[in-house]
Amino acid sequence: MFSSSTLLYPLSLFLSLSLLFLLSPHILLSSSRNNLLSTADELDDLSLFHRAALSSSNTRRLISLSHTPPPPPKIAFLFLTNSDLTFLPLWETFFQGHEHLYNAYIHADPSSTISPLLSSSSSINAKLIPSKKTARASPSLISAERRLIARAILDDPNNLYFALVSQHCVPLHSFPYIHNHLSNSHRSFVEILSDEPFLPNRYNARGFDALMPEIPYQDFRVGSQFFVLAKRHALIVIQERKLWRKFRLPCVDAESCYPEEHYFPTLLSLEDPQGCSPFTLTRVNWTGSVDGHPHTYGASEVSPQLIRMLRRSNSSLDYFFARKFSPESLQPLMEIADDVIFRD
Ligand SMILES: *[C@@H]1O[C@H](CO)[C@@H](O)[C@H](O)[C@H]1NC(C)=O
Ligand SMILES: *[C@@H]1O[C@H](CO)[C@@H](O)[C@H](O)[C@H]1NC(C)=O
């Protein structure tokens, strides 16, 4: 009895440990917040991206056969959110009267409280797209952004500009101002930085040299998450596979790893640096930032002077949007909307 149980115990321990060892990659992957994408999710996304690219090439063929002048371009507003849209009333005022020139899409984290009724009850008529889980410091935000782009391409062939915004963003100019400047630019606006002080840490955030050989250090770029893409770049982004295989790797250094701030700038600076303005159109205040979060403007800070100051940019264009604003700042922003924000 004694001898057999002493033998059995190490044996069962050995068996369970080896079982754990066999299964551990799956357990680790599925529990880590870094890797929220299952293979099924990836395949789902791939098929969506494929359909979007195909529909766009079919549309191009039809347009080249038709003799009527093309309709004016639409801007697709891509709302990426994990909470309710606090600033919806301000956006409704912004969009009012321009229904033929925009579409709005929402990717809301499945855990968020956003109401499925939003699309029907709000005048902006936003489409809530099928979403998957998202988290900071994980490639899940890249996937969500690509999903938004693909849905917008599929939904309306006249979506020619794709503007990413979050629930903390507010407009700084009127809709016609933004529409005119974008339709005359024919470019994308993606911040592309190569001289950021923490660039080496960010490059190695998935493990030392983990991005090699596809992305040598000298090709690596970073920039703001918030972009406006022209359609030709939106199509590149949803069809790209090589860089994605690297940028989808889980982060080992979460402090330096904001994959969505790496993937888009690196990809577009490799593919078409001349076709991109290396500036973002979304103003953010990093002075006194806490834990990777920028300064959040409170209600008492909102004033006409603040709006005018936030618009000022080093690029040839003013900033179009700004973040972040606290929920309480909605009221004072609404009060100055017509006289300041939407007066250009
Ligand atoms: C940026 O935020 C700081 C507080 O962190 C504030 O003092 C400063 O005025 C803000 N700058 C702008 C341009 O709003
Ligand atoms: C413009 O560039 C200067 C010099 O690099 C910088 O100090 C300033 O903060 C920039 N202004 C804005 C609005 O980004």
Automatic annotation (TrEMBL):
The lineage of its organism: Eukaryota, Viridiplantae, Streptophyta, Embryophyta, Tracheophyta. It comes from Raphanus sativus. The gene is LOC108854157. The keyword Membrane applies. GO terms for cellular component: membrane. It is a single-pass type II membrane protein. This is Glycosyltransferase BC10. GO terms for molecular function: glycosyltransferase activity. It holds the Pfam family Branch. InterPro entries: BC10-like (IPR044174), Glyco_trans_14 (IPR003406). Coiled coil: none annotated. Residues 1-30 form the signal peptide. It is found in: Membrane. Keywords: Glycoprotein, Glycosyltransferase, Membrane, Signal, Transferase.
